Amino acid sequence: MMNLTKKELETEVRVGIDTGGTFTDCVLWRTGEEPIVVKVPSTPSNPAEAIINGLELLCLQAGIPFTAVHFLVHGTTVATNAMLQEQWGKVGLITTKGFRDSLEIGTQMRPELYQLHQRKLPPIVPRNLILPIIGLLIIGYVWYRLESIAKIFGFSWVVIGIVYMLIINAKNKKIPNELNKGHDSNM
């Protein structure tokens, strides 16, 4: 929306698209008019296909060409839905030694604070897939170790939750890149 003239702002066309697991929702707004809303089937093998289909349908219903769209925003709930429906691959968590159980312990936020017999939800990452590491500044071969750990355990996803990030900041910047080297998985 940068450098638009007053006339362009008055006739501005904005599009918002949300890709979900089943449907892709699309909305087109024109200044001073009712929004146009369409829903198209999502295409998990190629999410861009559903986005283009939705955009084509919006522009067709609005009677405008693609080039009339001044601003497009895209979001997705695919990862959130996968988490809520527990439809993800094997997830591993690499964290600082001594903090392995932090996710399991959680916080004091629960429906009934003093209820001793509450049903606990299963953890997103089981304890046996939480790998504590030590000495990021001391151990020089830690990058090799992280890559090896991901391969050995067959993780589809790796979550890195290092405690005291400010203390060991310089080394941690390399972790995601090192995990991705030579892998086609979703790390």
Helix content: 25-40%
Low-confidence stretches: 136-142, 166-170, 178-187
Strand content bin? 15-25%
What characterizes the major β-sheet? 4 strands, mixed
Q: What would you note in describing this structure?
A:
- With 187 residues, this protein is α/β, with parallel strands linked by helices.
- 29% of the residues lie in helices and 22% in strands.
- The chain contains seven helices and seven strands; from the N terminus they run H-E-E-E-H-E-H-E-H-E-H-E-H-H.
- The chain has helices at 6-10, 47-62, 78-84, 102-105, 142-153, 169-172, 175-180, and strands spanning 13-19, 23-30, 36-41, 71-76, 91-96, 130-133, 157-161.
- The strands form two sheets. The chain has a four-stranded mixed beta sheet with strand order 3-2-1-4. Strands 6-5-7 form a three-stranded parallel beta sheet.
- Strand 2 and strand 3 (36-41) form a beta hairpin.
- The longest helix has 16 residues, at 47-62.
- The chain is elongated and about 60 Å long.
